[in-house]
Amino acid sequence: MRTLTELRDHIGDCHRCPLGETRTCLVFGVGREDADVMIIGEAPGRNEDLRGEPFVGAAGTLLDELLASIGLERDEVYIANILKCRPPGNRDPQAGEIETCTPFLREQVALVAPRVIVTLGNFATRFVLRTDAAITRLRGTVQHAGRFEVLPVFHPAAALYDRTKRDVLFDDFRLLGDLLAAGPDGPAPEPVQTALFGGEGEER
């Protein structure tokens, strides 16, 4: 695919997995197509399923606050999810659904070509970093996945009713602000772990 529009057209009215039968809207992704920051979440929730846009509920409001805390607006980043369709009852994504849907996410990463990928929660972090480590261990540390810097953080939904996680999220987004301020040629923090997102040092 040469553009995100072409990729969206290719996905079409997707029924490649059973989630196509239960969703209301496919939630492709939204934001700046050449963004320095790409944010990857888990899956659409109820509000996202109804509107066809990621992070439009309470967790989205918190995400907007987090971005604003480092001088960014939603339309300056690109936001997508591991899954493009809502799992019934907001259950966890299943392995087969992830396997079917994530080739489209890889294409989105390749087309946006961000400097930094922010992974929200366990599912996004484990997929991008190819790890079984929990988000509680990896959050707030700068990782490498191929040529990308990856910053795992708590999912905003987990912080809605937990003030401690909320405070930690704002701390971690300050680190994101520092990464962006340093620029591509600035001093890179030492990664805790190295992973390949999709191939030998490049995304697929």
Catalogue the unreliable spans: 189-204
**Alpha carbon gap, first and last residue:** 11 Å
The number of domains is: 1
Considering the protein shown, what is the CATH homologous superfamily?
A: Uracil-DNA glycosylase-like domain
CATH class (first level) name: Alpha Beta
Name the average pLDDT. 91
Range of helix content: 40-55%
What does this structure look like?
The protein is of the alpha/beta class and 204 residues long. The chain has one domain (4-184): Uracil-DNA Glycosylase, subunit E (3-Layer(aba) Sandwich), CATH 3.40.470. It is 41% helix and 13% strand. It contains 9 helices and 7 strands. It has helices at residues 4-11, 19-22, 46-51, 58-68, 95-112, 121-129, 135-138, 156-159, 163-182; strands spanning 30-31, 37-41, 78-81, 116-120, 143-145, 148-153, 194-195. The protein has a 7-stranded mixed beta sheet with strand order 1-3-2-4-6-5-7, sandwiched between helices.
Name a few traits of the molecule.
204 residues, alpha/beta, Uracil-DNA Glycosylase, subunit E, 7-stranded mixed beta sheet, 7 strands, 41% helix, globular
How do the strands and helices of this protein lay out in sequence?
Layout: H1 4-11, H2 19-22, E1 30-31, E2 37-41, H3 46-51, H4 58-68, E3 78-81, H5 95-112, E4 116-120, H6 121-129, H7 135-138, E5 143-145, E6 148-153, H8 156-159, H9 163-182, E7 194-195
Parallel strand pairs: 2-3, 2-4, 4-6, 5-7
Antiparallel strand pairs: 1-3, 5-6
